[in-house]
Design goal:
six-stranded mixed β-sheet, alpha/beta, 4 domains, MutS, DNA mismatch repair protein, Chain A, domain 3
């Protein structure tokens, strides 16, 4: 504001005249510089401005012999001299006067406009709210049409039935693979808790997040990325996804995970939707399985809870919950295995995954072949329970020069 240029041209006639005077003054300065160069023959002559001298003529010392007698010296620099002329000073007063008056007038106009806006503040805020709502609803409609969304059916029976659901963001990622839609069924009787197993990168996290997003979009009043969707009203959507610590508060990754889980268990209701991704992975295997199992049982057995839950995990032991709890179902993500390679088919199907494919994913990530081969040997040893006389896995004795540092860990088995 202090430099002007805030009020648009055409709003105030006097301001436009002052601006024109200042603009013409700048043109006059350019013409004056050109005429002085031609008159004196000094190619380096420049008309400049600062707050101390105003407008002045600067000439490098190599041309000082050509300076006219009419120039008045104002300052000597290392490589140049600065001069003024009566003509330059006279026009400076006109230019600066116009600029100062235009800035002052502009500040007056701005203050008046601001006061008018204050007097209409309530109407402006109401209009802004209405425009914002129209903007959101129009975007809902545009995205629904462009991305083939469907109108969800909202109900109060607690069911969630999604056909060919998609992730609204992931499916729009540039250069992404073709998105594979999936069905979802959640209710309070037979599908209250869904345990989802499968390898890393297969799409477990994307799947459970898309269900949460579809639920939220439906509650916002928008269409959803699915062929059809019946969404039971929920009071909250709880999520425990990702893994990160909180260094500023001195909380480890596992502590953050447990605190978020505690918040869910202490506040969820039968009308909530819960999304859990890898509960218990931040600690030892046995501790992690124990906590994950106990959390799942609490969600299913506690009468005050029994919230609809999607539970993604690598703990295959949790799939046994479906053997004793009628409201638990197992689902997994299809994988096509060929030799040492795997292809993620991204399709959710009933039943538990038969293994985690962790070593195959590690191969895709670029681990050296020697490490992959060794991991396969150790996996076979551990799965088959091959132990020597000392109770150590036999595989630990094959290459002691490579495993010396790890023997103490293998003793745990």
């Amino acid at each position: 504001l202090k430099d002007g240029g805030v009020i648009r041209p055409g709003y105030h006639a006097e301001l436009d005249e002052l601006r024109d005077a200042a603009t013409q003054g700048r043109k006059w300065l350019a013409d004056f510089q050109a005429s002085e160069i031609e008159r004196t023959g000094i190619k380096s002559l420049k008309v400049r401005h600062n707050k101390v001298f105003g407008y002045y003529i600067e000439i490098s010392k190599s041309y000082l012999a050509d300076v006219p007698d009419t120039y008045i010296r104002k300052q000597t620099l290392v490589n140049a001299e600065r001069f003024i002329t009566p003509e330059l000073k006279e026009y400076e007063n006109k230019i600066l006067g116009a600029q100062e008056r235009s800035i002052g007038l502009e500040q007056e106009i701005f203050t008046a406009v601001r006061q008018q806006a204050v007097e209409q503040l309530e109407a402006i805020q109401q209009n802004a709210l209405a425009i914002g709502q129209v903007d959101v609803l129009a975007t809902f409609a545009e995205r629904a049409l462009a991305n083939n969304y469907s109108r969800p059916v909202m109900s109060d029976d607690g069911r969630l039935d999604i056909r060919d659901g998609r992730h609204a963001v992931v499916e729009q990622m540039p250069n992404a693979e073709r998105f594979v839609p999936n069905d979802t069924r959640l209710d309070r009787e037979t599908h209250q808790l869904i345990i989802i197993t499968g390898p890393n990168m297969a799409g477990k996290s994307t799947y459970i997040r898309q269900v949460a997003l579809i639920t939220i979009m439906a509650h916002m009043g928008g269409f959803v990325p699915a062929a059809s969707a019946e969404i039971g009203l929920v009071d909250r959507v709880f999520t425990r996804v990702g893994a990160s610590d909180d260094l500023a508060r001195g909380r480890s990754t596992f502590m953050v995970e447990m605190q978020e889980t505690a918040n869910i268990l202490n506040n969820a209701t039968p009308k909530s939707l819960i999304v859990l991704d890898e509960i218990g992975r931040g600690t030892s295997t046995f501790d992690g399985i124990s906590i994950a199992w106990s959390v799942a049982e609490f969600l299913c057995k506690n009468p005050a809870m029994q919230a609809k839950t999607l539970f993604a995990t690598h703990y295959h032991e949790l799939t046994d919950l479906a053997l004793t709890l009628p409201n638990v179902q197992n689902f997994s993500i299809l994988v096509k295995e060929k030799g040492h390679s795997i292809t993620f088919l991204r399709k959710i199907v009933p039943g538990a995954a038969d293994k985690s494919y962790g070593i195959q994913v590690a191969r895709l990530a670029g681990l050296p072949d020697e490490v992959i081969d060794r991991a396969n040997d150790i996996l076979s040893n551990l799965e088959e329970g091959e132990f020597g006389d000392g109770g150590q896995p036999k595989i630990a004795k094959k290459r002691p020069h490579k495993l010396k540092a790890n023997i103490s860990q293998l003793d745990l088995f």
